[in-house]
């Protein structure tokens, strides 16, 4: 009996070791991991401080979380400019999440804009209307993937917000456009973009979130619109998190 027990124990240990070898190099993904990877993929990438907000973890937890993603081959990280490090998906990460977008590092010239749009998303998702209405965010990357090349001559919104047809929802069935405006454009160009988004009834609402430098131009362009279009346009300030934090002194 003792010999038989020893043999069974040996078989169990061998099986366990084999299972561990088969599982080597993989990680167990939580829903938080999946949400974070999808967020990075949809937004071209994410700076660590905003990723902490999205994952609802202390900022000092983020390096360990993204290190696990790197070990699995899903993500890459690095310092791309002033401020916190960034995380973006590799080709494997894009494949595993099912997004299928090109696996490229965020372009340096777009870092500020990518950050602003992601901060706008997190700010809106933290509001009571979002919790009550259960809308979903349709990112710029998804919009570009959905739009044929010939149709991209028209201005694409930085994001769409789709409201489901829930009973009692004040926005049931509506689609909103969101624009994050960091720098001022010519007034005429801004007005043309607004007119294109507002007609022919593409969106129930168009929301402009602006930096202080762009606020005057956006307001002037909006004031030139017909009254009916002005009623469907909302101008607000970008949340503070939209701007790269100053390094500690």
Report on the structure:
The chain is of the alpha/beta class and 249 residues long. It folds into two domains: 1-106, Arc Repressor Mutant, subunit A; 109-249. 46% of the residues lie in helices and 14% in strands. The protein has eleven helices and eight strands. The chain has helices at 2-22, 31-42, 48-55, 62-71, 91-97, 111-125, 128-133, 140-146, 187-198, 212-223, 227-230, and strands at 46-47, 75-78, 86-89, 136-139, 159-162, 175-181, 205-210, 233-237. It has a five-stranded mixed β-sheet. Strands 1-3-2 form a three-stranded antiparallel β-sheet. The chain is globular, with a radius of gyration of 23 Å. The protein starts with a helix and ends in a 12-residue tail after the last strand.
Q: What is the percentage of strand-forming residues? A: 5-15%
The rounded Rg comes to: 23 Å
Low-confidence stretches: 1-24
Mean pLDDT: 88
- The biggest beta sheet, please? 5 strands, mixed
Briefly note the structural class of the backbone: alpha/beta
Molecular shape: globular
Q: Distance between the terminal alpha carbons, to the nearest Å? A: 71 Å
Tally of strands? 8
Order of helices and strands: HHEHHEEHHHEHEEHEHHE
Secondary structure: helix percent: 40-55%
Tally the structural domains.
2
Number of helical stretches of at least 4 residues: 11
Condensed summary:
The protein is of the alpha/beta class.
């Amino acid at each position: 009996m003792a010999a038989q027990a020893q043999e069974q124990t040996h078989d169990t240990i061998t099986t366990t070791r084999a299972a561990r070898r088969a599982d080597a190099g993989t990680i167990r993904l939580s829903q938080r991991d999946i949400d974070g990877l999808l967020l990075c993929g949809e937004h071209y990438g994410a700076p660590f401080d905003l990723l902490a907000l999205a994952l609802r973890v202390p900022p000092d937890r983020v390096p360990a979380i993204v290190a696990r993603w790197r070990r699995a081959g899903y993500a890459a990280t690095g310092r791309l400019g002033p401020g916190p490090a960034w995380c973006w998906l590799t080709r494997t990460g894009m494949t595993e999440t099912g997004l299928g977008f090109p696996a490229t590092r965020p372009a340096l010239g777009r870092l500020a804009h990518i950050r602003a749009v992601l901060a706008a998303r997190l700010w809106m998702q933290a509001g009571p209307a979002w919790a009550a209405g259960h809308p979903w965010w349709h990112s710029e990357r998804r919009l570009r993937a959905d739009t044929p090349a010939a149709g991209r001559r028209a201005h694409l919104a930085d994001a769409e917000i789709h409201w489901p047809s829930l009973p009692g929802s004040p926005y049931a069935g509506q689609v909103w456009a969101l624009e994050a405006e960091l720098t001022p454009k010519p007034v005429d160009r801004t007005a043309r973009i607004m007119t294109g988004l507002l007609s022919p009834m593409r969106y129930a609402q168009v929301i402009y979130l602006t930096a202080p430098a762009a606020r005057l131009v956006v307001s002037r362009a909006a004031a030139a619109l017909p009254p009916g279009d002005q009623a469907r346009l909302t101008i607000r300030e970008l949340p503070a998190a939209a701007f790269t934090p100053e390094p500690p002194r």
